[in-house]
Write a structure and sequence with these properties.
This protein is of the alpha/beta class and 748 residues long. The chain has 26 helices and 23 strands. The protein starts with 5 loop residues before the first helix and ends in an 11-residue tail after the last strand. The protein binds adenosine-5'-triphosphate.
């Protein structure tokens, strides 16, 4: 659009009006913030002057005054924090107040209204909206509709009308840099411009260019559980975060960030996505990983293998003696059939007879074993095992209490009679000690019969595994079951728990009531969903049964060939059918056309990307005689691509071992960082990282280290390689020594 034209002038005038109003509100808020700060300082002074130093010796009145001050100061702090947040919002508005405009004529009106769309609402004193939040119902027209008939949903129903104009702006530092009208969808030019840029830091918001298929997921309110399958770079993580922002806006009276949890693959990823919500003016939700949750739940009794250690084992120790047994264990314990076996076993344990004994104290029957059985199998039956046992214990102690009191009285009389006491308190104290001593055995017995022994339950499961396999009609041969049993029980004897076993223990803990479920969490987001097993989904469901769930993944990016979801069919039965929807995204945005084409060929899947057709260099496959030469070439290429202006370079290896090797070579020769643990800090500069920790991340330039046929030799590793290639935005170079992997034979 012409800068000297009338339209530009009109837009500029409007922008000035908006900035003036925003500036006015910004000033008011600053004034309020300053006043709250001064008040808070005054309150603190008054606290010292009026209350002084607090001591119990000064009486309860002083403590009450002190508490009153503290509560007041707390309220002042909250108000100050709130004005600080509003200030940040205005600062954003003053720099870039809006990015879109729609002109819409409602069917019942005859004149088009202009709606400017930005990160947040701006409302003047007359309650006129100068800017509409991108999450407001009317704003969905901007993302969903083309010029012509259009409609949007709002709490009152569907509003129909005609969209007569859709305009996009880039406003920076309060100045229009460019604007243009888009007749069809959100214009490719702006999207192209955004995508062609270099990525220098953490993930960014996509609010100005959300695509229609993405908007459908972000605003979906119809289903409680959404399963979103989308190819690499289709915006799944971006959608997840924008959906959270949407929920926080839409249900702001009911839902706060503390009611939302996102399960990410690792800490690095958590760090990578941590800026998006604050950029959108919202606070971050609770970010966690399955591993973190499981670690906290299982405690430290056993040596627990972590996820990285398992991946290193799977990818790096193929020649190890027990490798096959371990892999078979992982595969078996990750299958849907196994979940069914576990369910049967849980039922069995809940119904299994327990050896209750009569509780007798001083020849008096306190409660009979028959009564305890009755309580256990009838009255408390609806509760999970651990809670039933706790109830039984409470019951016995309750029945025992009067007998204990009587006995204490009896002993007290006896002690008094000895004449060696002058003080009644001493008599009481000694009587209690004597009775506690007498009751030691009975307390031990109570503990024994009501103890919840998780590891014993787990052991018994594997000891009886063949029975449950037969019950579940699973035709596994005895030899295989024996192998699994032996492998698992040996691990337990050595007090060590493999990653896959920890998941089972966590499941038992939940099912037997050893972990309390939370109703605080109302929204759960599970990203990189392909890398969780059906059993892990059972756990998610059990923990957050009443919450809404958005599950986002790409089956083609399963980085663990033996432990993954397999197919969405494997989990869809877990969630109520009529409240669950599977949505397929088809377009991808991250990589150039050439890189996307190349990566799809690894999967033998056709390139049908209707997304953005951003052109770039063809990926390179470079062969060398040994690994030393690869490292030399990588060093050269880092310099070449840095000189070309690319900001982030990811050198992707297969394992941490390889990361160490490459890092040791490069560390004194180039400015470089390495990620070797799943809680290392994410620094998106030049980074060496094993592929299983790089999932979800992206780099301008991806250099894949040693794709020789020894490293990537079988079909199972295809998805690993695909995931590595799809991390690249602009440049992809693959290096190998000796022979290249057969997985790339058909690709170039
Ligand atoms: N509508 C959009 N507008 C601008 N950029 C977008 C859009 N959608 C996605 N992107 C960009 O595409 C890249 C990939 O997005 P994201 O990481 O969310 O995809 P993903 O599906 O989670 O990827 P993967 O499964 O490969 O990890 C990011 O750089 C993101 O900013």
């Amino acid at each position: 659009m012409n800068r000297d034209g009338l339209e530009w002038k009109v837009e500029d005038e409007w922008l000035q009006e908006v900035l003036e109003e925003a500036g006015k509100q910004y000033g008011k808020n600053n004034h309020l913030k300053e006043k709250i700060r001064e008040d808070a300082i005054r309150t603190q002074k008054e606290l010292w002057e009026e209350v002084g130093s607090v001591s119990i010796a000064n009486g309860m009145d002083q403590i009450a005054d002190f508490m009153q001050f503290i509560n007041f100061m707390r309220t002042q702090k909250i108000s100050h924090e709130s004005t600080r947040k509003i200030q940040e919002k205005y600062e954003k508005v003053l720099s870039s107040p809006y990015f879109g405009r729609i002109d819409f004529i409602e069917d019942v009106e005859n004149r088009a209204e202009k709606y400017y769309i930005g990160i947040s609402n701006l409302i003047d004193d007359n309650i006129d909206f100068l800017i509409y939040d991108w999450r407001a119902p009317i704003s969905s027209i901007f993302y969903d509709c083309e010029i012509g008939e259009a409609s949007y949903k709002c709490p009152e129903g569907v509003i129909e009308g005609e969209l007569t104009l859709k305009r996009q702006y880039k406003i920076n530092n309060g100045k229009i840099e460019y604007m243009f009208d888009s007749n069809i969808k959100i214009d490719d030019e702006i999207l192209q411009d955004i995508l062609s840029k270099s990525t220098d830091n953490k993930m960014k918001t996509i609010v100005t260019t959300i695509q229609r298929e993405q908007n459908k997921v972000i605003r979906n309110e119809k289903y409680k559980t959404l399963i979103v399958q989308g190819p690499a770079g289709s915006g799944k993580t971006s959608i997840a975060l924008h959906r959270i922002a949407y929920v926080l806006y839409r249900y702001r009276e009911k839902i706060t960030p503390e009611n939302i949890v996102i399960f990410s693959p690792n800490e690095i990823f958590n760090d990578y996505i941590s800026n998006v919500l604050p950029e959108l003016g919202e606070e971050n939700m609770y970010q966690t990983t399955f591993k973190e949750y499981m670690d906290a739940a299982l405690g430290n009794e056993f040596k627990k293998e972590n996820y990285c250690e398992m991946m290193e084992y799977i990818l790096g120790t193929k020649n190890e003696l027990n490798y096959e047994s371990r892999i078979y264990n992982i595969v078996y314990k990750s299958s849907v059939e196994f979940v069914n076996i576990l369910k049967d076993y849980v039922k069995y344990v809940e119904k299994t007879d327990r050896k209750f004994s009569d509780i007798i104290f001083k020849d008096k029957l306190i409660v009979s074993s028959k009564d305890l059985q009755e309580l256990f199998f009838k009255e408390y039956m609806p509760l999970p095992l651990k809670r039933r046992l706790r109830k039984i214990k409470e019951r016995i102690l309750f029945l025992l209490e009067p007998h204990k009191k009587d006995r204490i009285k009896e002993i007290a009389v006896e002690l008094e009679y000895t004449g060696s006491y002058v003080n009644k308190n001493e008599i009481l104290r000694d009587s209690i000690t004597i009775v506690n001593d007498e009751m030691k055995e009975i307390y031990n017995e109570i503990d024994k019969i009501t103890e919840f022994r998780l590891i014993e339950i787990y052991k018994e499961f594997f000891e009886k595994l063949d029975i449950f396999c037969t019950n579940s009609n699973i035709l596994d041969c005895k030899e295989k079951i024996d192998k699994i049993r032996k492998y698992t029980l040996t691990g337990l004897e050595n007090k060590s728990l493999n990653y896959e076993d920890q998941i089972i223990l966590l499941y038992f803990k939940i099912m037997f009531g050893d972990i309390s479920k939370t109703s605080e969490i109302k929204y759960v987001i599970i990203d990189e969903a392909q890398d969780y097993t059906p059993l892990q989904y059972e756990i998610f469901y059990q923990l957050f049964e009443s919450a809404n769930m958005t599950i986002l993944g790409d089956l083609n990016q399963s980085i663990n060939p033996f432990m993954n979801i397999g197919d969405y069919k494997n989990i869809s039965h877990i969630f109520p059918k009529d409240n669950t929807s599977i949505i397929n995204l088809t377009k991808s945005y991250r990589s150039t056309k050439e890189i996307t084409e190349f990566s799809r060929k690894i999967l033998n899947s056709e390139f049908i990307n209707e997304g953005i057709q951003r052109k770039g260099d063809k990926p390179l496959l470079l062969g060398f005689t040994n690994e030393e030469e690869i490292k030399q070439k990588i060093l050269e290429d880092i310099k070449i691509y840095k000189d070309k202006g690319y900001k982030s370079i990811g050198i992707i290896t297969r394992t941490v071992e390889e990361t160490k090797e490459v890092y040791n070579y490069l560390k004194d020769k180039a400015h470089i960082n390495a990620i070797m643990k799943d809680d290392d800090e994410f620094i998106n500069d030049t980074l060496i990282i094993p592929i299983y920790l790089a999932k979800g991340l992206e780099f301008d330039v991806v250099l894949i280290y040693n794709v020789g046929n020894e490293n990537y030799s079988c079909e199972e590793e295809k998805l690993l390689l695909y995931t590595a290639c799809t991390r690249a935005l602009h440049i992809l170079c693959i290096y190998y020594s000796g022979n290249s992997t057969p997985l790339l034979k058909e690709v170039l």
